[in-house]
What does this fold into?
Amino acid sequence: MKIKVLGPLSAEVNGGSIVPTARKPRQILTLLALYPGRVVPVPTLMEELWGTNLPQSALTTLQTYILQLRRQLGTAMGPGGGGPGSAGGAKEVLVTRHGGYLLQVPPEAVDVHEYESLVTRGHSDFEQGDDESAAAMLRAALTLWQGPALVDVRVGPILEIEVMRLEESRLVTVERRIDVDLRLGRHTELLAELTELIARHPQHEGLHSQAMVALYRSGRQATALDVYRRLRGRLIEDLGVEPSPQLQRLHQAMLTVDPALDVQAGPKRGSTFDLYAV
It folds into this structure.
């Protein structure tokens, strides 16, 4: 089985899709896939499907959805899985246990776990100063994304939190990968990507600091200073606050042409945003 949640939901067995068309079975499959080999309690599944307004038939309906998923899984598994249209051996994959259900598949069968493994390796390489390997690991992790997480699943309260967590992780990974690329002197290659990112995240100081450094090192000091000016205007107008002290110090360093900004590798184990942290 291979399951993808970093984009449209995809789940295949023997080359055949087992993704249900109905909303709630899709939610169940997704939630179980996010915790492979771990029991998801019945109350958690019910909260995802119905929130706090549980129908009287909630448990029976949930069991019906599980049966439907098992039948679809059994069909995809073929004769070895109990025969077409039968749950059969599918019960050994979608398991009932300890007041809940679990999907008995290895973590590497789900793209999010492959992503998190690559991110962990990339962060470790980053901390050890192995920038080339860190960049490769983080880039490989990000290529697993095929769009916003669970873009075609109507999520309930539990999956909504998971989507927020995954999207935040994705943004942090992008930032870290850009930090590594800046340390490797790839500032010019980053300009188009950073221009798009700061447009999509107009109040994100970390991304703006990266854009400023990339522009400065590409010989575009005036544009780098303009990025700061526009960010400061938005923060004051929208939130009534000034940029953070480290961003102000980065701005001042560019005004005074601080030689430290020209060191492409930057301080090891440090982010671009923290170049001028106290």
Summary: The CA atoms of residues 173 and 264 lie 20 Å apart. Residues 81-87 have pLDDT under 50 and may be disordered. DSSP finds ten helices and six strands in the chain. Residues 157-183 form the longest helix (27 residues).
